[in-house]
Amino acid sequence: MSVQAPERPTTADYFPTEEEYVGLLGRRTRRATWFKLFCLGMLTIAVLALATLLYTIVNDSFGLVAVVNQNEPEDIVAGLGHDPETTTLGDLDYDELVGLLEANVSSGVGRRLEREQRFYEDRLVFEDEATWTEICSSDAPPTGCTAGPRDGANVLALVQERVVVPDVIASYELVPSMLDPEAFEAEVMAGFEAGRFPEYTADQAQFEWRAWFSPTFLMSPASATPEIAGIRTAILGSLWLVVITVLFAVPVGVGAAIYLVEFARPSRFNSFIQTNINNLAGVPSIIYGMLGLAILVRVLEPFTSGAIFTSGPAPSDNGRTILSAGITLGLLTLPVVIISAQEALKAVPDSLRQAGMALGATRWQTVRSQIIPVAMPGILTGTILAIARAVGETAPLILVGAASFITLDPTGPFSKFTALPIQIFQWTSFPQEEFRNLAAAASLALLILLLTLNAAAIVFRNRFSRRAE
Amino acid sequence: MSTDQTETTLRESLMKSPRPGETAIRGFLFICGAISIATTIGILYELGTESFLFFQSEEVSILEFMTDTFWQPQIGRFGIWPLILGTMLISVIAMLVAIPIGLASAIYLSEYASRRVRNFFKPILEILVGIPTVVYGFFALTFMTPLLRDVLGANVVGFFNILSAGIVVGILIVPLVSSLSEDALSAVPDSLRQAAYALGASKFEVSMRVVVPAALSGIAAGIVIAMSRAVGETMVVTLASGASPRNFTLGQDSFFGYILNPFQGAQAMTGYIAITASGDLSYNTIDYNSIFAIGLTLFFMTLGLNALSRRLVNRFRQAYE
Fold first, then answer.
1. What average pLDDT does this structure show over A293-322?
2. Is the Cβ of A49 closer than 8 Å to some Cβ of chain B?
3. I want to staple A188 with a disulfide (CB 3.0 to 4.6 A). Which of A66, A181, B45, B276 is the partner?
4. What is the mean pLDDT of residues A39-67?
5. Residue range B189-206, pLDDT digits in tens
6. CB atoms within 10 A of CB A92
């Protein structure tokens, strides 16, 4: 076979005919439109995800419940000679509440409560003086020996828990509760007929609106009974953590940023510090938790339990305290604070530094009086956002051993504590439906707290940046 | 000569002039910078020594840890693979969710959206970043899992399943993918776009054939960072994917029916650490040491991913400078 030169293409092969061209154009336009719609659709999915998440939380935070009380609050109030129409349990005074407990609670439970925290400064309700002195002088005295007396809210919660003993047997979500409240009652009644609630009869059940997220919820201490559980202990724990995290991370983080941006000459060691900070920012938070557990809780136990600060018994029997957790969160936040403060410092024009130096100021004088005031809004914004991230961290707190069940408010850096995210984690992992409502309400509280912090960041940014101009 | 000398002495005396305050502040600032190094040393030391104790104990050998496909501390079998399997399955599902949503959102925001549309969508994505992961865990358990069980059937999908965990972790890292990709896309010089438009390209062709390839290494770096975040994510995984490791025997267990089955639970590395630590954990037990060995593995996995991402970014920087 002889070799033939390939046939020379004609112009028609290079260029499409008009018909082909129009068809091609149409296809290209259609593809462009579909692609645009696809991208917009994906963005919408992201927004929908956020909307669904918020919807789920709000939906579970409110709604109808079916509740059975062992003792009706109205009967209790009437039994004390008050008018049940005008008086509620919350209106009773401290002595009446303690009296209710005395009358309704077994002496064993009463003694346990008193050992946890006593009711009166000057007298004992359930224990007798001799036993009390004996257990308080033993090797491991209970918390009631040292802590101050309970307050009204605390005793009211105890009365709710131990005397009224409400039991939410079923709960409904917000949206179905509003659209179709009868369906819930029908469902509960069907449940009674099917024998789902063998302990109660159908006429004991009361249907009522319940806002799981309410002022009472925010103010009540934690409890094993979901009906009366609140998050005061957790909120206080989280606030303590914020304080310690800020006290640790802000000076150290801003200091490190100033060193790296203003003082450090380019050297191997300084660029090693920089790389190291970037690497630390990518370490998972749970690893910081393990650092906290091994070093702060275990090795530095005398420090974190407060033992080296007192000659008497340590404020806490181990290192699983607010101080350990706060420093752990501080270490976790540190790289983020450093990086954002560095950005803010780098954004300050060099002319300010040169002007300061030209006037004969030392480096630190220049930094203190020229650079920091200008970089302030940026530093503050970055820091607040970093702290907001730390407030929501859960994994490190689990590792350093935030106790899940604490009913006493934290009193200082050496207290045992629980925090909002830990409380949400615990409640979410319980199977009962009521705890899911509690987890939703606590999530709502946490989101509101974070939103406040973020809003503060924005306000700071706007306020300071106007001043700097 | 004499003026020279005074100048030198003057300079010297100025340089030497004692400024104890200045030196002290400098020292303090240096210590602040060095604390970050102390943190790294602390992490490496504590993970290293506890892992060493773990491998020293008679019940476990480093070879078993790296090759065995059973994690059953009760009977003394410590193979890390079931936990890595759980982590990888969840991360892969998360990436399958996050890459299309995050990348397409970034392309839309950077190439198509008007200023007003951007100002509407960007804060929403930023809010998604700010939501604590434990809330996402709650969301996975109370919304995603019931939804999957309703749609796919409760007999197919277990109460704890990695699909739900993976999807929610994916949603959690969408903002990360989208913001890093958007940075990469907007770093592509406008001249490239203008050249492509001048050749008659449609917006789709400009985006997909010019801008995205030009920004590819930056986008890839963002995706790797997001992957590292997914691997280290704890709360969603602990709550939604269950507390039993998926032990398997290669060649014996069905590959798609069991080993890779997304509808059943599988404990991940972070999940194991969190669950073990939240129980009663006493020091110097095999359980206590085991979480550090897993932590060390996790640390190196995320470190490797972050290093890879930084290399990708450096390549991308070189392209247009």
1. 79
2. yes
3. A66
4. 91
5. 999 999 999 998 888 999
6. 21
Sort B186 into a burial class: Cβ within 10 Å, 0-12 / 13-18 / 19+: middle
Q: Which of B26, B204, B280 to mutate to test the interface with A (most CBs of A within 10 A)?
A: B204
CA distance A42 to B98: 10
Residues in chain B with CB shorter than 8 Å from the CB of A419 are: none
Q: Which of A252, A276, A443 sits opposite B135 (nearest CB)?
A: A443
Give the span between the Cα atoms of B118 and B309, in whole angstroms.
Answer: 27
CA torsion sign, A285 to A288 to A293 to A294? positive
AA letter at A249: A
Would you list the DSSP string of B97-128?
HHHHHHHHHHHIIIII--HHHHHHHHHHHHHH
pLDDT digit string (tens) for A57-78? 999 998 888 888 877 887 888 8
Indicate the pLDDT class of residue B172, thresholds 50, 70 and 90: very high
- For A263, which of B19, B26, B310 is closest by C-beta distance? B26
pLDDT on residue B237:
94
Rounded to a whole number of angstroms, the CA Rg of chain B reads 26
What is the average pLDDT score of chain B?
87
- What confidence category does residue B321 fall into, taking pLDDT thresholds of 50, 70 and 90? very low
SS3 state of residue A62: strand
pLDDT of residue B16: 63
Please give the CATH topology (third level) of the domain spanning B81-319: MetI-like fold (1.10.3720)
DSSP label at residue A171: E
* Banded model confidence at residue A138, pLDDT cuts 50, 70, 90: confident
Q: Could you give the CA distance from residue B243 to residue A439 in angstroms, rounded to a whole number?
A: 20
Which residues 220-279 of chain A have a CB within 8 Å of chain B?
251-256, 258-260, 263-264, 270, 272-273, 276-279
Q: Do B32 and A259 touch (CB under 8 A)?
A: yes
**Residue A336 to residues A214, A228, A252, A386, A389, Cα–Cα distance (Å):** 34, 39, 12, 6, 10
Task: Answer yes or no: do B29 and A446 touch at CB < 8 A.
Answer: no
Q: Would you tell me which residues 333-392 of chain A have a C-beta closer than 8 angstroms to some C-beta of chain B?
A: 334-335, 338, 362-364, 385, 388-389, 391-392
pLDDT, position A469: 46
d(CA A54, CA A400): 30
The pLDDT, as a whole number, for residue B1 is: 47
Amino acid at A312: G
